[in-house]
Design brief:
binds protoporphyrin IX containing FE, two-stranded antiparallel sheet, 44% helix, globular, 8 helices, alpha+beta
Length: 247
């Protein structure tokens, strides 16, 4: 089990921790050292590091890129969101979890971004133990089921005007949504374990960026829409270029 007290590793941990505190890049080594102290085999440590870095870094950067892209193309939504943030913050500069809990439009914006651009666009499961019947279809046991939830979250039967960025659809009580039509974090006991921290990271980063900058499309860009494409993860087909104007 994890225990401090082995001189050289403690020293390295301390150095890495200080680097992390200074915001320096430690390429996951601190985390690696930390996990070595759990007594887990090195193979498990390395697979955990890879999983956490892959699952926790590209997912957030992609969601941030698409969020800022859509907000730059919808200045009226950006203005309402900024108004919401400034009202909750009341002059303070650094938002925390309790602040974003009072920002319904922020949550709607991120839900809408993940509906249009679910960074993991498909999911899979094997029903291993028994045959099951779903909607008139028999699924024999040991069948691999893959689900393209990118498609369900852009299906007009579930979301009117499905390709449009309309965060208010999540705030409109009269517009009910199928609970499994947009599932960017998966569902059930193997769903994203990082969901809450991921949402919080995006809320806090967007709040701080919007308090400081007006985000606009690149004035030298063509104005053409950037489409998403699948490269295991969902990524932009071309560069997203934005202009950040200090407020
Ligand atoms: C917007 C950001 C994120 C999205 C859209 C996302 C999405 C997903 C999805 C779709 C899955 C598979 C769920 C399933 O099979 O049902 C997953 C699994 C996972 N995610 Fe995330 N994720 C995000 C951020 C994060 C972050 C920040 C972390 C870590 C801090 C993380 C850690 C994980 C881990 C460890 C798993 C595997 C869980 C398991 O197999 O039990 N994710 N994520």
């Amino acid at each position: 089990m994890f225990q401090f007290g082995q001189g050289h590793i403690d020293q390295r941990l301390k150095e890495e921790a200080e680097k992390v505190a200074r915001g320096e890049d430690v390429e996951g080594r601190y985390l690696t050292y930390f996990l070595t102290r759990t007594g887990l085999p090195m193979k498990t440590v390395y697979s955990n590091i890879t999983e956490l870095l892959l699952a926790g870094v590209d997912t957030i950067s992609s969601t941030m890129s698409w969020s800022l892209y859509e907000l730059s193309r919808h200045p009226e939504v950006q203005a309402s969101l900024r108004e919401e943030i400034l009202a909750v913050m009341g002059g303070r500069r650094v938002p925390g979890a309790a602040d974003v809990a009072r920002m319904p439009l922020m949550k709607a914006v991120v839900k809408e971004v993940l509906r249009l651009y679910p960074v993991i666009p498909a999911n899979a499961r094997v029903i291993a133990d028994k045959d099951i019947q779903v909607g008139g279809y028999l699924l024999p046991k040991n069948t691999l089921i893959t689900l393209c939830h990118f498609a369900t979250s852009r299906n007009a039967a579930f979301f009117p005007n499905p390709d449009a960025f309309q965060p208010h659809r999540w705030l409109n009580r009269n517009e009910g949504h199928h609970p499994y039509a947009s599932v960017p974090f998966g569902v059930g006991k193997r769903s994203c374990i990082g969901r809450r921290i991921a949402e919080l990271e995006v809320y806090l980063a967007l709040a701080r960026i919007l308090m400081q900058f007006d985000v606009k499309p690149d004035p030298e860009g063509s104005g053409a829409a950037v489409k998403p494409m699948t490269r295991t993860l969902l990524v932009p087909e071309s560069e997203i270029n934005l202009q950040f104007i200090e407020r």
